[in-house]
Amino acid sequence: MEALLAKKIGMTQVFSETGDCIPVTIVQVERCVPILKKTIEKDGYQAVLTTYGVRKEKHTNKPLKGFYDKHKVEPGRLLTEFRDEEIDDDQLGKPLTVELFAAGDRVDVIGTSKGKGFAGVMKRFNFAGAPASRGSHEAFRGGGSIGMHTYPGRVWKGKKMPGHMGNKTVRVQNLKVFRVDVDKNVLFLNGAAPGPNGQIVKIIKSKKGGR
Amino acid sequence: MNLIDQIESEEMKKEIPDLHVGDTVKVHMRIVEGEKERIQIIEGIIIRISGGGIRETITVRKISFGIGVERIFPLYSPRVEQIDVVKRAKVRQARLYFLRELRGKAARLKELKPPKTEAAKRKRTRGRKKSTTA
Q1: Of A12, A19, A186, which has the smallest distance from its Cβ to B54's Cβ?
Q2: Which residues of chain A have pLDDT under 50?
Q3: A45 and A147 co-located in one domain
């Protein structure tokens, strides 16, 4: 198993030994417990089901309680699968720690980006907008023309237009693990992770894994 | 104390003297040239203190061969070896950008004599308290 659920705490900066200032995202692993394995024979695909955090007794309904009791794990805040991960049977039910990763490893971080609402084309796709002066009027932040004339007589599919932005699952690839703090159960990742502070993100060993 | 503050305070390992805008300081910079490492001293006036915690930086202005030079030092960078305060000055602005316009004698600041006695300090704070209550 080379994957974790962790809470994004926020960003700060640290200095490396050579004096370089490094922007880091701090993620903390509070309680991340693998519960069960899904196998190709039984489920048609391979995965590890993992829970994160603590769920209060009063918020645990009976079906959930039954599920957690069956696997002898305390109820968690959320349940997530890690596809194509492997785990030994004796590791199930034991909390995962940041020791899975070492400084210098490359990881991917998967989370939900901050919702930006209905955004225009300048914010959403970095369009240039229109000139602010020299006789231009009304269309300052517009996207301009969206097509041609009789041919094709329609708007191309995939045309970039205003719409909902953010609040999507985002995978940031190939972040370097700058430091691992085992005492605090904290990872320092070199770079930004998606979503607001306090969000639970998935941390997976980088799939492309450049060194 | 939240986790970020905790981590930042752990990173702030160095002892930094009490710095103010207007202070003339000597910054000992560690400079690595290939294999060799040496200390370079840059002396000038602090014209800006910006950021807080581990992000705190000072901007030091000096006149080097007749040309004004400004350098920004992150206080907690391991490359900043040591900071000495040479003298302090009386300043009324938080940012001394007006020094950029001035040359020679005009670009001096009125020096503040460093040893502030305990009695003088107490007097000042008492006066301030009185004014707020009145």
Answers
A1: A12
A2: none
A3: no
A187 lies in the same domain as A100:
yes
Domain span holding position A158:
116-129+140-166
Model confidence at B119, pLDDT cuts 50, 70, 90, reads low
Per the structure, the count of domains in chain A is 2
Collapse the DSSP code of B55 into the 3-class scheme (helix H, G, I; strand E, B; otherwise coil) and give the result: helix
Query: Measured over all CA atoms, what is the biggest interatomic distance in chain B, rounded to whole angstroms?
Result: 65
Show Cβ contacts of residue A120 under 8 Å, excluding neighbours closer than 6 positions.
A141, A143, A162
By the CB < 8 Å criterion, does B57 face chain A?
no
Structure confidence at residue A156 (pLDDT): 95
Closest residue in chain B to residue A11, using alpha carbons only? B4
> What is each CA distance from B77 to A18, A36, A206, B55, in whole angstroms?
9, 46, 30, 9
Could you tell me if A15 lies within 8 Å of chain B, comparing CB atoms? yes
Model pLDDT, residue A121: 96
| Residues B68, B73, B79, B82, Cα dihedral to 10° | 90
Q: Are residues A29 and A104 in the same domain?
A: yes
What is the ipTM score, two decimals?
0.76
Residue of B nearest to A24 (CA): B4
Statement to judge: residues A162 and A81 lie in one domain = no
Residues A155 and A197 both lie in one domain: no
Same domain for A30 and A94, yes or no, is: yes
Same domain, A96 and A38: yes
Nearest to A48 by CA among A86, A22, A19, A18: A86
Substitution target from A7, A8, A15 for chain B, most B beta carbons within 10 A = A15
